[in-house]
Design brief:
The complex is a heterodimer of chains A (282) and B (322). By secondary structure, chain A is mostly helical. Chain A has 10 helices and 2 strands. Chain B has helices at residues 7-10, 27-66, 69-72, 75-78, 96-127, 130-145, 148-167, 175-199, 203-211, 216-227, 229-245, 248-253, 271-278, 287-321, and strands at 83-84, 92-93. In chain B, strands 1-2 form a two-stranded antiparallel ribbon. In chain B, strand 1 (83-84) and strand 2 (92-93) form a beta hairpin. In chain B, helix 5 (96-127) crosses helix 11 (229-245), helix 7 (148-167) packs across helix 8 and helix 11 (229-245) packs antiparallel against helix 14 (287-321). The chains are: A mainly alpha (282), B mainly alpha (322).
């Protein structure tokens, strides 16, 4: 075969791989949207499940997911930002820094169900928080922490060294330099990264299975220590635990669509924040 | 002459103090500021240490919660093949079948995800035009963001009937279904990290190859990809770690049979699924409860090792680059 033919063939083979990946995503989104949109109505979004979850809506699950995402954010966003500031601004090259980085990488590889086990042992049992919004949110917070740290550090890295030097040369202390000349430029990037992390946390099921999510609750949670319903778990329940599969299938598709919309919505918010601040900075 | 008036008084700045600095600070203020800086630095240091503390905490808590299991269950029991702690005849705690199941779906998934992922990564890094790349990269990010429970759901309602029809079997909730879903889950990891590795190959390598008369294809396959191999292997290891630890998709789509699987069309039950199914129903503090933490500990060690190896490969690779 000619060199040219082989090249065209090879390149097209690789292109085929990429097309395949796009098709997979397209098929997933299309299937969920096409079969889920019929279930979406005002009632579906604002009512409780009724008649053994074969009718009604998913309002408690939406609220529950919002609550745990909030707890997750309150826990992991400050902690992740502070850790990133340490790593990028204060840490010197050395053994401790290497170990910190190694643990961050390994934390991001720990299976989500293992975080669930850890959450049961620590938050539910040792700290006596019970199965609650707080336990589940904190468990998800631990899960997102490595992503938040990495994303925040990436944002800090994009601020040029000269910004810091300028402040230091004018007699500012290190913290003053960071506060006035680094953070204002890094925070949009940090937010973008952390929102992406939160979006992934909102879709997680395994860590909340035993730390607070409830099969069915007819009312909304009234304190951080009460149990809750969540979109991903609700989808799991509808898809696998329900006896009347045919009847709940449209509801399951609707739940999947709302969950995906929530996750993609957070992603879009992150992109818009990034775009907005980039334009402002000029 | 008016110009002879002492300069210090005419300057808009405050006069020099004893320390040779302008300003009205007292020495104590410096000390306070220094202490404050040190306080802030140690605050950030503590926050930096949190990830070490969490990792150590996970390790020690899994260990201490798993250890009591050995009071009632002999170590060799864990080496048996069948996991059936709720059996009416005799509770068995063998990890054999569930470990084989986990490895089976993981490697099956890699068989699908590695060729597709590599093709996509190479296309993105070397062949695609910038515009195509700008469209493809967010698509891969969105794919990474699809919740695993949604994929598991599609495994039940879409992949399941497809497999059943293709192989003429009553239902398609089996290892193959899990492989397909896990492949989709690990694709984004493999693609984005491999692409980074391929794009990081120095241009001089490629130029040298092109100058010797190689075509772009020959350069890509014989020079660029081999040069990026360590990064590619590391990305595959990370994808593998993700597949080993994935819970919801395998829980929903693989059928959860406890027997030792013999083919990809058998229903399997992975380690992660076993924890997910049983932890909710097990009495707190029983041997069974602690045995689930043993599974968690083994899972933790497996993914830890996979990540560590990929880390070492990457580290070596960066050293060679520099």
């Amino acid at each position: 075969m000619k060199k040219q033919t082989v090249e065209t063939l090879g390149f097209n083979l690789f292109r085929l791989g990429s097309v395949f990946v796009v098709l997979i995503l397209g098929a997933i989104l299309f299937d969920i949207f096409y079969k889920g949109i019929g279930a979406i109505s005002w009632e579906f979004l604002t009512a409780e499940p009724r008649m053994g979850m074969t009718e009604g809506g998913i309002f408690p699950a939406i609220v529950g997911t919002l609550y745990i995402t909030l707890i997750t954010a309150l826990f992991s966003v400050p902690l992740g930002m502070f850790a990133a500031i340490y790593l990028n601004e204060y840490a010197r090259q050395g053994k401790i820094t290497r170990i910190i980085r190694l643990s961050i990488r390994n934390l991001s590889g720990v299976p989500s169900i293992v975080y669930g086990l850890f959450g049961v042992a620590l938050f539910v049992r040792v700290l006596h928080l019970g199965t609650s919004i707080l336990s589940a949110g904190l468990t998800l917070g631990l899960l997102t922490l490595p992503w938040t740290i990495t994303a925040s550090e990436e944002a800090l890295k994009t601020v040029p060294k000269s910004y810091r030097d300028g402040a230091l040369a004018l007699g500012a202390t290190k913290w003053q330099a960071i506060r006035t000349n680094v953070l204002p430029y890094a925070i949009p990037g940090m937010l973008t990264g952390t929102i992406l992390g939160l979006a992934r946390a909102a879709g997680e099921t395994a860590p909340i299975l035993f730390t607070g999510v409830a099969f069915f609750l007819p009312f909304l949670p009234d304190s951080p220590l009460s149990q809750f319903m969540a979109l991903p778990y609700h989808l799991y329940v509808l898809a696998t635990q329900h006896h009347d599969v045919e009847k709940v299938m449209p509801l399951a598709y609707g739940t999947a669509l709302v969950l995906i919309a929530f996750v993609v919505g957070l992603n879009l918010a992150a992109v818009i924040i990034r775009y907005h601040f980039r334009k402002k900075r000029g | 002459m008016p110009g002879m008036v002492s300069k210090a008084n005419k300057s808009p700045l405050p006069p020099f103090n004893k320390r040779g600095m302008r300003g009205d600070f007292k020495p104590g203020r410096f000390r306070w500021q220094k202490a404050k800086e040190r306080l802030i630095a140690s605050f950030f240091f503590f926050n930096g240490m949190v990830s070490i503390i969490i990792l150590a905490g996970i390790f020690s808590l899994l260990f201490s919660e798993g250890l009591p299991a050995f009071k009632e269950i002999h170590f060799s029991d864990f080496l048996q093949s069948t996991w059936n702690p709720t059996s009416y005849v005799k509770a068995t705690y063998g990890l054999g079948a569930i470990m084989v199941s986990t490895l089976m779906v993981t490697f099956g998934a890699l068989l699908i995800a590695v060729p597709v992922g590599l093709a996509c990564a190479a296309y993105l890094a070397e062949i695609a035009s910038p515009r195509v790349r700008e469209v493809l990269k967010p698509i891969i990010e969105i794919l990474a963001g699809i919740p695993s429970v949604v994929l598991g759901f599609l495994g039940i309602v879409v992949v399941n009937p497809l497999i059943a029809r293709a192989f003429g079997i009553p239902n398609g909730l089996n290892a193959l279904n899990g492989c397909i879903l896990l492949a989709i889950m690990s694709l984004p990891t493999i693609i984005s990290l491999s692409e980074d590795a391929i794009a990081a190959v120095p241009k001089t390598h490629k130029d040298a190859s092109l100058a010797l008369g190689a075509s772009r294809w020959q350069t890509l396959v014989r020079v660029t990809i081999p040069s990026a191999l360590s990064g590619i292997i590391a990305s595959i290891m990370l994808g593998m770690g993700r597949a080993i630890g994935e819970t919801m998709t395998v829980l929903m789509a693989t059928g959860n049979a406890q027997a030792m699987p013999h083919s990809f069309l058998d229903a399997v039950r992975t380690m992660t699924a076993t924890i997910a199914i049983e932890l909710g129903e097990v009495p707190f503090g029983s041997a069974h409860y602690h045995a689930l933490f043993v599974i968690g500990f083994v899972l933790f060690v497996m993914t830890f090792l996979v990540n560590l190896v990929s880390d070492i490969i990457l580290q070596k690779y960066q050293e060679v680059e520099q």
